[in-house]
Write a structure and sequence with these properties.
This protein is 33% helix and 27% strand. By secondary structure, it is of the alpha/beta class. The strands form three sheets. Strands 7-8-10-11-12-9 form a six-stranded mixed β-sheet, with helices on both faces. The structure holds zinc ion. Zinc ion binds next to loops. Keywords: Metal-binding. This is Nif3-like dinuclear metal center hexameric protein. Belongs to the GTP cyclohydrolase I type 2/NIF3 family. InterPro entries: DUF34/NIF3, DUF34/NIF3_sf.
Amino acid sequence: MSDVSMNRPGEVRRDDLVAWLNDYLQVSTFKDVSLNGLQIEGTDIIRRVAASVDTSVKTLQHAADSGADILLVHHGLFWGRPLPITGPHYQRVRTAIQADLNLYASHLPLDAHAEVGNNAMMARALSLTGTMPFAEVAGKQIGVAGELPFELSLQDFADRIQKLTGEICLVHSGGGPTVRRVGICSGEGSDRVAEAAALGLDTLLTGEPAHKHFNDAFEYGINVVFAGHYETEVFGVRALAAKLEDHFGLPWQFLHHPTGL
Ligand SMILES: [Zn+2]
């Protein structure tokens, strides 16, 4: 943990903030090809934070226009393959650099985090009890499995999720008519059906469907509720920005750019 005692109230040196984030999110413990941490270096002093799910020219420009000094995102600039700084990738980098905006990305660490992670936040919103890690990616469990305090009909469960995200869910009712034991895997978790069934869960809550996994729900006999990749990943960046406000007194804003996916 870096010493941030020399920072003035309401502002923090970028390097101190990044060190704090890397430590809090346990970035070094993840073998994640999407490059977690500071991806673009901007201004040295942070006074205002913006948070968004995705990195795009729109979100970067919106962050710059909002007066933010740093944009926190879940999906950063990189997904594990080298990219030339050309075309839209160039436009993204240029938008941030021209605005002197820092870009900090937290992908798997922000799915998995026990306090501000996407899955922990949804588990808390659903009051799951007896929670345990679930859904291994690159040697780490990033999801949460647990039990609802009382049994819900599948329809009532879907309604609760819709209230939570504000969007309509897609439901594949491969299991029984009721929901009690739930596994949550934000984003792209449609390949987690077998794992959920092996744990004795009756329902998998995830983000985005994949056609190749359609029959899994029905053949493993569990329900799968797809709440949207974007919608299941707004929780982490918002909670992380709120954490920075608590810890450093930095004001923040969530930039809502839904993808419909
Ligand atoms: Zn994602």
